[in-house]
Amino acid sequence: MDLNDEVLKTIIFSDFMRKLALVHTACRYLCYIIHQRQQLKRRRVSHIPTQSTIERQKVRDELMSRLRNSEKCYDVIRMGPQAFQGLCDILRRDGDLQDTACHG
Predict the structure, then answer these.
(1) In terms of domain of life, where is this protein from (predicted)?
(2) Helix axes 51-69, 81-93, angle to 10 degrees
């Protein structure tokens, strides 16, 4: 073998090793993405309401009902029931307010 053959082998081997490293990195990244997606799926397991979440929902519903249907709304937040409901509707529409209760 002459020097040109050795140089060519070295270049081919270097190119092969770079490609192998790239494939290895891509496989590791793909495994990472798959792992993260599995973690997210585990967190999204359907929420089974517990007694405490049911109680909190009842309290939340009662408070909202009182705020909407009485003059206490003004005493608590310094606006009337219609203004409060309008504010909630605007904030929900603009994406600045989301219900915290789990409906499901």
Answers:
(1) Eukaryota
(2) 120
For the segment 33-92, what is each residue's pLDDT rounded down to a tens digit? 888 888 887 776 566 677 788 888 888 888 778 777 777 666 777 777 788 788 888 888
98 Cβ contact list (under 8 Å, min separation 6): 92
What does the H/E/C string look like for 33-44?
HHHHHHHHHHHC
Is the overall model pTM greater than 0.70, yes or no?
Answer: no
CA nearest to 66, candidates 57, 76, 56 = 76
Task: Give the HSE-up count for residue 14: Cα atoms under 13 Å, Cβ half-sphere.
Answer: 6
Residue in 93, 67, 69 with CA at minimum distance from that of residue 78 = 67
Burial class (CB in 10 A: 0-12, 13-18, 19+), 73: buried
At residue 2, the pLDDT reads 82
